[in-house]
Structures are given as C-alpha cells and as structure tokens.
Amino acid sequence: MAFRDIRVVGDPVLRTPCEEITVIDDRVRTLVDDLVETVDHEGRAGLAANQIGVSLRAFSWNIDDEVGYVLNPRIVELSEDTYQDGDEGCLSVPGLWFPTNRAWYAKVVGTDLDGAEVVVEGTELMARCLQHEVDHLDGMLYIDRLERSVRKKAMRAIRDQL
Fold first, then answer.
1. What CATH superfamily classification does 12-161 receive?
2. Staple 1 to which of 25, 37, 43, 46, CB 3.0 to 4.6 Å?
C-alpha cells in the first residue's frame, strides 16, 4: 500500500472518463489498497482513481468512520424531489469550497475485488460523496456543476492559486 499524491485541476487525467475494470488482477488490488490508504485521513470524504493518476473506474470513501471502496460504480438512484445545496470541496481543487446542488439521496451499484455486487447508498454527505466520485470517474469536476455566476468565481479563484 502507498499513500498517493493527488492530481489537481489542470491535469488532463481528471478530465478523461475512466475505463471499466474488466480483470481484477494485482494492479487493481494495489489500486484499491492505495485508494483506501490515501482516503483514510481526516478531512477526506472520497477519492477517485483518476485523482491519483489511474484512469480506472474505482473510488474509495471515508464517511462517518467507515472506509470502503467500489469498482465500476454506477448511480442507479437519486432522490428526485429532495436536494442539498451546501458547500462542496475537492482534493483536486484544494482549499476551495463552493455551493453545489446535489441529490439528497444517492445509490451506487458496483463490485468488490471478488466480483461480488456492492451496493452503497446514503443521504447528505454520503450521497454527495457518491455523486462527486462518480462524476470524477466520468471526467467531471464539481466546479462543472456550479451555477454560472459561482463557477465564474471558482475559475477565478483557481487561476489565482496557479
């Protein structure tokens, strides 16, 4: 296992949709170990594989003292009439937080390292994490979801950090 460096906005790997994992081999096992170790620190809620430079569909989470992972996740359910609009941040957009609308509830289905189905669901922070990490795997950052005026401020703040 290794604690991995986080890729930041501007790195093309963050904008590239990740590939499905078709074979669970030592490379994928090592990736999961690295995702779990890297997310298991205070202040970290989730981590997608492309955030550590690996363009495969996997992410880990660290919510309410539960650390886990899922391979090939897909969102299968979102609350349609209940939303949350709190501030959201991202390890790949360090130090910046902006109000981001997300579904209040989310459900993701994927697999584990044994190929067994994994269902991860939750509300509030867990729902936000699931949506945020699947976005990463699709090559999208949370700043892409911001309202136009807020996105303009976010882009300015990002440029000021560079």
1. Peptide deformylase (3.90.45.10)
2. 37
